[in-house]
Design goal:
The complex is a heterodimer of chains A (264) and B (407).
Chain A: H1 3-8, E1 14-20, H2 26-38, E2 43-47, H3 58-69, H4 74-85, E3 93-97, H5 99-105, H6 107-117, E4 121-124, H7 129-141, E5 145-147, E6 149-150, H8 156-165, E7 170-173, H9 186-199, E8 204-207, H10 213-220, E9 225-228, H11 230-238, H12 246-263
Parallel strand pairs in A: 1-2, 1-9, 2-3, 3-4, 4-5, 6-7, 7-8, 8-9
Helix pairs in contact in A: 2-4, 4-6, 6-7, 10-12, 11-12
Chain B: E1 19-20, E2 23-27, H1 30-46, H2 50-64, E3 70-72, H3 74-80, E4 84-89, H4 99-113, E5 117-122, H5 126-138, E6 141-147, H6 148-153, H7 155-163, E7 167-171, H8 178-192, E8 196-199, H9 209-217, H10 219-231, E9 238-242, H11 247-253, E10 263-271, H12 282-285, E11 287-291, E12 293-298, H13 323-330, E13 334-340, H14 341-355, H15 361-375, E14 382-387, H16 395-401
Parallel strand pairs in B: 4-14, 5-6, 5-8, 6-7, 9-10, 9-14, 10-13
Antiparallel strand pairs in B: 1-2, 2-12, 3-4, 11-12
Helix pairs in contact in B: 2-4, 4-5, 4-9, 5-7, 9-11, 10-11, 14-15
The chains are: A alpha/beta (264), B alpha/beta (407).
Chain lengths: 264, 407
């Protein structure tokens, strides 16, 4: 069992929190990671800043821009995880990003260093399984999971293929659109999750469009957990300096509570 | 024309998974994979379908005005004192550039897929205008994404798109230019994939776009081959075309790929000079990476972040290039060189003075290199330069350099 599967297969519904590494700087990111864990986040998705984040909505786009302004590279993301691991060897950390920075570093070099830094898995937004086999080999050799996405438009045949290629968990993108967009159609999510469950034993987490305790509970009722991104990043952008991470923590407490209520 | 895109040769790229060797592919978010598969299967069915081919042929003839002439530039050739220079006059197409060739094909595909809405990205505005034009022609809703930087530089085309009934959506993220407009168009497509067809303006993007756009544009090369044979006999010694994303170049190169005696030369934008870093020449100076759905040569830094580009011509101002060009470079079938802003401007002026033809600044890069090349060749040799567009849209830019304001 890995740190990731131990966590996701536990009793309570999982809460994954997404932030962009280096938004607004590296030290703040490490602090925020610890703070988020302290209010009930089960695993952290750390966004790798990229100049052209084509799948992101406006909130996360500007977070990438802020992180690039503080010169946060892929190597820095790994350093952030390593620093976080000094006092936390429990909480899984998954890197999420676009292929080019990883490919530029080199797949094997990246996989080796990610493992060494204490990374648990990887999500690459613009890498469908058809293009992912080489990277997957490098990652798996270092016992890192490569997590693929399933979308509302994914055909039943592809759902099966993607689930068989995924490890760690299956990430269901709950809406057609970019991160942080629109409103959720819980009925549609429910029926798609049934379909995924029928072909896969992996935990299913749902992301995109989860904003608060209410939406988290609605989606969490059918999944093994939720991923919250834009809602957190939006609060970070508005946070006043000197107030630590109070607002982010309040939001996460509310979501945690929403999830815990349905767990019972 | 029994079908389109058949080279009738051994060259059979991209392969079934959309790759040209290591280049190309489908590097997109999962939401788009189904739409790409639908586009691919629609196209594979239609490219042999008589009705579709007739519609395409008739629109290219009666709406676009094809075939475009192959013109022997006698005074320019004499002035250079070397090879004979021919110009493939894509500037004479409806809307003034080669972009319309592919837009007509895309609009017909959208119609056959039952998608009432099209979106496009644009830099200089040429592809935006061509997309807005076919949208009007086929009764489709149209939104064009354009960087705010480019909207300022190309106010004429922006207004023209509005006249055509399209909505121009300003993009103020990132560098506020073509690449960011492309990001934003992808975001729109992910959101509205059910009713929307995305018309990518060049031979880039995820498979099947590079193949699709190449096939639609290869009418340029097919005509050139036939016209050259009947007007001059034989084959030209070299073909020269400018390369931003590379659609006009791919269109004229493709039917000549197996004619190994014909040199194929792509001309990138050297901007302020290759040594300055302020250019848009990924095939000359870049390295392999992944952007906008495909693996190709890119301008990016040691951390994999995409670099800002510069060219006097907005249409070449792009950090990537179509994956088939990367492949043709690596297998040695095509050569890629670069021309800077000043050389392009000189060629722009020279073609006006010697031939009475106003080339687009993009095409002026090809003209500049063609002129250089001609001087190194003999009078019994010939060069075809793809004059991909006309330069009316660039008059304000050039006038400004002359200290005259006509905006």
């Amino acid at each position: 069992m890995s740190r990731l599967s131990d966590t996701l297969e536990g009793e309570r519904k999982s809460l994954l929190a997404y932030i962009v590494a280096g938004d607004p700087n590296r030290v703040a990111t490490i602090e925020l990671m610890h703070d988020m864990v302290s209010v009930g986040v089960d695993a952290i998705e750390l966004g790798i800043p990229f100049s052209d984040p084509e799948a992101e909505g406006p909130v996360i786009q500007v977070a990438h821009e802020r992180a690039l302004q503080s010169n946060t590279s892929l190597a820095d993301c790994l350093a952030i995880v390593k620093a976080f691991r000094k006092t936390n060897d429990q909480t899984p950390v998954i890197l999420m990003g676009y292929l080019n920075p990883v490919e530029t570093m080199g797949y094997q070099k990246f996989a080796d260093q990610a493992y060494e830094s204490g990374v648990d898995g990887m999500i690459i937004v613009n890498l469908p399984p058809e293009e992912g086999s080489v990277l997957k080999e490098s990652l798996n050799r270092n016992s890192l999971d490569l997590i693929y996405l399933v979308a509302p438009t994914t055909t039943p045949k592809r759902v099966e293929m993607i689930c068989s290629e995924s490890s760690g968990f299956v990430y269901y993108v709950s809406l057609k659109g970019t991160t942080g967009a629109g409103t959720l159609d819980v009925k549609e999510v429910e029926s798609k999750l049934k379909q995924i469950r029928s072909v896969s034993k992996l935990p299913i987490l749902v992301g995109f469009g989860i904003k608060n305790g209410e939406t988290a509970a609605a989606v969490g009722a059918h999944s093994d957990g939720v991923v919250v991104g834009s809602a957190i990043v939006d609060v970070i952008a508005k946070q006043k300096p000197g107030f630590a991470n109070k607002d982010v923590c309040n939001l996460l407490r509310e979501i945690r509570q929403g999830l815990d209520e349905i767990s019972r | 024309m029994s079908s389109i895109g058949n080279n009738e040769t051994l060259y059979s790229f991209p392969d079934a998974s959309g790759h040209f060797g290591v280049f190309g592919g489908k590097f997109v978010s999962e939401t788009l994979t189904t739409a790409l598969a639908e586009l691919e299967s629609t196209y594979e069915n239609l490219r042999e379908d008589e009705t579709f081919l007739r519609e395409l042929r008739e629109d290219l003839a009666y709406y676009v005005g094809r075939s475009s002439p192959l013109y022997f530039a006698e005074r320019l050739s004499r002035e250079m004192g070397g090879a004979k220079i021919f110009l493939k006059r894509e500037d004479l197409n409806h809307t003034g550039a080669h972009k319309i060739n592919s837009c007509i094909g895309h609009a017909l595909l959208a119609k056959h897929m039952g998608k009432p809405r099209i979106i496009a990205e644009t830099g200089a505005g040429q592809h935006g205008v061509a997309s807005a034009t076919v949208a009007a022609r086929f009764g489709l809703e149209c939104q064009v994404y354009m960087g705010t930087e480019d909207i300022e530089r190309q106010s004429l085309n922006v207004y023209r798109m509005k006249l055509l009934g399209a909505e121009v959506v300003p993009v103020s993220s990132g560098s506020r230019t073509l690449k960011d407009a492309l990001n934003e168009a992808m975001r729109d497509w992910v959101t509205n994939v059910d009713n929307t067809h995305y018309i990518i303006g060049t031979v880039a993007g995820p498979h099947p776009y590079p193949k699709l756009v190449r096939d639609f544009q290869s009418v340029i090369g097919r005509e050139t081959k036939e016209q050259f044979r009947s007007q001059n006999g034989g084959l030209p010694d070299a073909i020269v075309a400018c390369v931003g994303g590379g659609s006009n170049a791919m269109g004229i190169f493709y039917p000549f790929l197996e004619d190994k005696a014909v040199r194929l030369i792509g001309v990138e934008a050297a901007g302020r000079g290759l040594e300055t870093g302020a250019h848009a020449a990924p095939l000359n100076e870049g390295s392999i990476g992944v952007l906008h759905g495909n693996r190709t040569y890119l301008m990016h830094d040691e951390n994999g972040q995409i670099l800002p580009t510069h060219s006097i011509s907005a249409g070449l101002d792009y950090p990537g290039v179509g994956p088939e060009h990367s492949w043709l470079k690596d297998i040695g079938r095509a050569e890629y060189t670069a021309i800077d802003d000043n050389e392009a401007l000189k060629a722009f002026r020279k073609l006006n003075l010697l031939e009475g033809i106003l080339p687009a600044l993009e095409s002026s890069h090809a003209v500049a290199y063609g002129m250089k090349l001609a001087t190194s060749m003999c009078p019994d040799q010939s060069i075809v330069i793809n004059l991909s567009g006309r330069g009316d849209k660039d008059i304000p830019t050039v006038a400004r350099l002359d200290g005259i304001s006509i905006d």
